[in-house]
Amino acid sequence: MDQLASLLEGFTVVFTPANLLFLVIGAVLGTAVGVLPGLGSAMAVALLLPVTFSLDPTGAFIMFASIYFGGLFGDSTAGILLNTPGNSSAIATTFEGHRMAKSGRAAKALGTAAIGAFIGGLIACTLVVFFSPYIVELAKVFGPAEYFALAAFAFVAISAVVADSIVRGIVALGIGFALALVGIDGISGAERFTFGSPVLFDGISIIIITVGLLALGEVLHVASYIKRGGGVEVPMHSDGSPFLRRKDWRKALPAFLRGTAFGIPFGAIPVGGSEVPTFLAYGTEKRLARRRNDPDFGTRGAIQGVAAPEAAGNSTAGTAMGALLALGIPTSATAAMMLAAFQQYGMQPGPLLFERSGDLVWPLMASFFIGLVILLIINLPFAAVWAKLLLIPRHYLYASITLIAMLGVYAVASRVVDMWIALGIGVLGFVMRRYAIPVAPVLIAAILGPLAETQLRRTLAISEGDPAALVSTPVPIVLYAILFVFVTVSVVQHLRNRAATRRERVTA
């Protein structure tokens, strides 16, 4: 109960006019930057970090918290409306969210994302307050072999679930690996697929890949559709309220809880941020949609496909803050920026932080809860306002998307060549859409490919080349066993669906 007493003391510090004002300002600024494609929550913290230097430490950390979660709330807005997520953590939300927007339910999708982010973050922050010691123990379990097994699980599971054809899923996975291999090998220092160009030594940024595949690929696909249709499409309509009705809650609430369950463990271990749990949550919802024969999933957009990834992303962010405070380990890019903010004030997160700086830490923890409430109040009513962007005629809207996307790409390193790379990847995204090759495996391979390669080589180096080291502990064995069962069931389902399709064609 010591944690509860300390948390209540933190609430008394936060509930002052000045600190509440800092929370509101941070929430608005974080959301505004998070909405911009190519920037996202990590950039929100980075850009707004100097704003807090003139504040006292308590006010600064409270503002950090609202900027942190505000950026996460904003990440999914552009993804849902424009198919251009503000950060890679919102990619999974984009798939069904943008379909909902195109079918006239943009406000509902934005409202679901806001509620999902609130629920996921609230549950995760509650667990962080009361179960920080267990988070420490969870992080200690994972070594190189466990990280590789987790990445392999994500690769195969997502490719098998999100693709109608396993072959197409594997092809997409290979494309993602090819993009991830560009640059300097981090272990040997050798060049790989750089064609001798120094521009590619640092690899291809995930922002460039995301913007190219999702935003520019979608723009080219829509442009070709309009061209083949012989005219300019009418604007996408946007009807309805962002508030969920009773039947929406019946669909969304289990997805919120499933997504949160995926996200909570991942925040404590450095496996590439919230991308893995958001994709796994999305894949689970798609598999469940197939079982119940949901006609909206993958077509008009299903509310569960927004609810689960968004809850997973924010719950991961909540436990990531717990891992940062308790262990001093940043498990995501945004958490790394938060670590820099702590160090700016002479604080080193870790096991002794709660003892040495409890007067600062507990107000920060309390501000997580209040900040989430403020963000929900800010984002939910304005969802319908954001949705009005879809009333812009399609040719003007997608021209604006192209401009914003290219500005986001240029902002990464201020290089024109990055814009050409993004355009090339956009053409690749267009071709993938034409031939029904899924985009999700490309993105997950590009994000987790370097991590999987590094951990595999590290495991083999430690074991002096013995592959048995990959299955020498219980965690990898369990993950591989689950993966085997998962893939077997998926293959059987695909074969059954193919046989059923053939029978329908014969009877027709």
Automatic annotation (TrEMBL):
Pfam families reported in the protein's UniProt record: TctA
Keywords associated with the record: Membrane, Transmembrane, Transmembrane helix
Residues spanning the membrane: 20-49, 61-82, 109-135, 147-163, 170-187, 199-220, 255-273, 320-340, 360-384, 396-413, 420-448, 477-495
InterPro entries in the cross-refs: DUF112_TM
Keyword Transmembrane helix: yes
Organism superkingdom: Bacteria
UniProt name for this protein: Tripartite tricarboxylate transporter permease
Keyword Metal-binding: no
PANTHER family: TRICARBOXYLIC TRANSPORT PROTEIN
Domain DUF112: 20-443
